[in-house]
Amino acid sequence: MRIEIKRLAKSYQRKNVFRDLSWELEKGKSYVVTGPNGSGKSTLLRLLCGLEKPTAGTITCYIGKKVVDPSSTRSSMGLVSPDLQFYGQLSPLENLVFFSALRGLDNGSDILQRLLVKVQLGKEMSRPVATFSSGMKQRLRLAFALLHEPVFLFLDEPFTNLDRAGKDLVIRIIADQVSKGIVLMATNEPWEVECFGQDILHLAPGSMGPG
Amino acid sequence: MGRIFCTSLRGVWALVKKDLVDELRTRYAITSMGLFALTTLVMVSFSTGIFALDAGLHASFLWIIVFFSAMSALARSFIKEEEKGTASTLRLSASPEIIFTGKLLYNVILLLGLIVVVFPFYLFLMNLPPGGNYALVVVFLIIGSACLAGATTILAAMVSRAGAKNSLLPVLAFPVLLPVLLTAIRGTSIALAGGKAGGVSSELTFLFSYLVIIVTASLLLFPFVWED
To answer: For residues A206 and A18, is the Cβ–Cβ distance under 8 A?
Structure first.
């Protein structure tokens, strides 16, 4: 299992976020991308998930020795990001049932309920998401990212808004995921970089690859 | 192949169901569309009540009411996803084709719901000429609505990231939908005057062809609109 980033560049309206970025990520390690605001951490994660297209360069994902077809990479990737929102009028269970059906998964309601219990939303299963606190929404993002058991997990500031129990949950999820595949986290917190950065990418605005 | 088709159908149905449940809980589109339609209908009824209108005018009024009521609600299908920040979550979860087909079906259902309310009220409030072929009128309303929904869905996706989203759609939709409206008005007018299906075959063929072309072109175009 491997992700190969080659000479990746992204710019918005001629302004470079980063360019000539090359990096290789392999199974069994947790990776951290860090850097000041605007250095392109979230953009890199969005590019890896296919939510944005690079200005130049390539991203190739391998499962075993087989290249993952770009049109189906999303089924092997999970993303936790503050950009991801859910339907406020629906309960977390209804949201997961919906996204599960969209992904073509055969997850029964009991599997989804167990997932919600895992992210400590077991008691809030039937409450509309609109009434959730920021921390509860972050837990739902974790459940959403794990819904299809992805091999590549991308976490953008995953500890944001979480209490102690929530942070412990994220630590457990990362430990579990490292054994199954690849974890890449974007963060600015020094303790998160230190704890999870087995390989660290430092980005600076308009940067040219790993520092 | 069959499994992929079934999975896609499940995804489409999930999206339609989610939008319907969301709509029934918020009632945003139903309220704006229903109130706009009923207010316009009552205004038309009061302002023309003393005149005996011919079939052509009735058909024009009916389609104008349907068009503007639809514009106030159908634009929301994609705009609400962008505004609520759920568009990225959707992009991560399904292929553009599933998203487009689901949104299109939801818009068709919404428009047919509008027609179920507006047409009986129109019959009740306006003095329609006797002897009309109402079954054929309903056929025109159904196929015309599907055309409206087809064009509006792709245009709504295009304008959903623009600044003045809500006001932009009717302006953009007008030239695209003008041929549909003119044909639907002509066909409905003939049907209201008592015409038979054989007399409106060219109108029906045009609307059906338009529907096939707009849906096919939209399915090809939508991935670029949705993902770029």
So the answer is: yes
* Residues shown for chain B: 228
What ipTM does the predicted assembly reach? 0.89
Burial call B140-171: b when 16+ CB within 10 Å, e when fewer: bbebbbbbbbbbbbbbbbbbbeeeebeebbbe
Preferred mutation among A43, A47, A87, A142 to probe B, highest tally of B CBs within 10 A: A87
Residue from B22, B28, B89, B228 whose CB has the most chain A CBs within 10 Å, to mutate: B89
Tens of pLDDT along B130-187? 888 999 999 999 999 999 999 999 999 998 877 666 678 878 888 999 999 999 999 9
Distance separating alpha carbons of residues B49 and B44, to the nearest angstrom: 8
A203: left (phi over 0), alpha (psi -120 to 50) or beta: beta
Nearest Cβ partner for B10 among A49, A84, A101: A101
Note the pTM of the prediction, 2 decimals: 0.90
User: Cβ of B93 and A85 within 8 Å?
Assistant: no
d(CA B76, CA B156): 7
Q: Amino acid identity, residue A168?
A: D
